[in-house]
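Same chain as my last thread, 157 residues:
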Amino acid sequence: MRLADLSTGVLFLVFSVVAYFYLIPTQIVLSIPEDHLGPSALRPDFLPRQTVLLFGFLAVFLISSAIREKEPENAPWTERRRLYQVVVVFAVVFLYTYALELLGFAIVSPVFLAILMWFMGLREWRLIVPVALLLPVFLTYFFWYSFYVILPEGSLF
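reply #2:
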């Protein structure tokens, strides 16, 4: 049993349950009365609920794979390495969310992607640089033209 994957899966599952039953109902407000919605109208909480359900399913999958798979006995350092990776990624994501407020999506996201790809073991700069630069541009245009959502622009600029 892999302890780092098991604890991460349990943490993600708890987050999914809290988000589905507490965060989404309390934070997403329906601006149109319920009786004015047509039969095919999507409620504002539809996409967040589907995303959290998928995240919870993946957490259950991670827990089950962690229970089924056995850790190699000759490599005790891999358990600490995985736990270290989870903690570092959590810290980087935490910093990313606060940097979005200050610097905006266009500046922070390429740096964030490049750091995460390098940290996870990808050392091919010919792959890191184009992905880190082009993915935020694609996401910006996708969200703007598909959903008319402006991603964070930052307060410093």
